[in-house]
Specification:
The chain has strands spanning 2-7, 10-12, 16-23, 32-39, 47-53, 59-61, 65-66, 71-77, 88-93, 95-96, 99-103, 107-115, 122-129, 132-140, 142-145, 148-156, 163-170, 180-181, 185-187. With 196 residues, it is mainly beta.
């Protein structure tokens, strides 16, 4: 038999995944195993993107690979191409950044970049509450290129305490990219007006 494992199964745009496995049986030392992949929308056949050789225990490992959209992988030993591993699927989240932009006494603008461009995506501003994350605003992304978009939200400062916010991005691209999230960021409470 032939096995293939994929870690992590859910990753972020441009990050690496690790693929390894084993060949069971006799005479498994030094076999060449091909890694094949098919990317979203999966209308093309699997094609070979890397090879690896088994050790004396039949174990093999491919070089880590970056993934940029939903991708399926399988392993095939060159000596017996009819022996194919199970297909492993990598889901890919958009990469969402966030930082504080311009600010006033009453408000702060939260801005960030999203990779890839995702022209049909929707960004949702979420605030942390005692019950979890709640969406409080939404906006379409502003495409800058095929691989980058931006967003901006105006956040009014709370009177009594700081609040945690994050941005969720729904790709809405048919399954090529999973929902992405920015890190959480704190917005300080409303500043008191200075007395003259």
């Amino acid at each position: 038999g032939l096995t293939l494992s994929l870690l992590p199964a859910l990753t972020t745009w441009g990050r690496l995944v690790s693929l390894s496995g084993s060949v069971q049986g006799a005479g498994v030392n030094g076999l060449t195993v091909a890694l094949q992949q098919s990317s979203f929308p999966f209308d093309a056949d699997f094609h070979t993107v890397a090879t690896a050789r088994t050790n004396r225990n039949g174990l093999y490992r491919f070089p880590s690979r970056p993934v940029f959209l939903a991708t399926r992988f399988r392993a095939v030993p060159l000596i017996a191409p009819q022996l194919v591993s199970e297909v492993r699927s990598a889901r890919v989240r958009s990469r969402v950044g966030i930082h504080r932009g311009r600010k006033t006494r009453r408000a702060v603008w939260l801005t960030g970049s999203v990779n890839p461009g995702l022209p049909t995506a929707l960004a949702r501003l979420q605030r942390r509450t005692r019950f979890g994350w709640r969406s409080v605003a939404s906006a379409a992304l502003a495409p800058q290129s095929d691989v980058r978009s931006t967003y901006e939200f105006k956040v009014r400062r709370k009177k009594r305490r700081a609040a945690l916010y994050r941005v969720r991005v729904d790709a809405r691209d048919g399954g090529a990219h999973a929902r992405g999230f920015s890190p959480a960021i704190s917005v300080g409470k409303k500043q008191r007006k200075r007395r003259r």
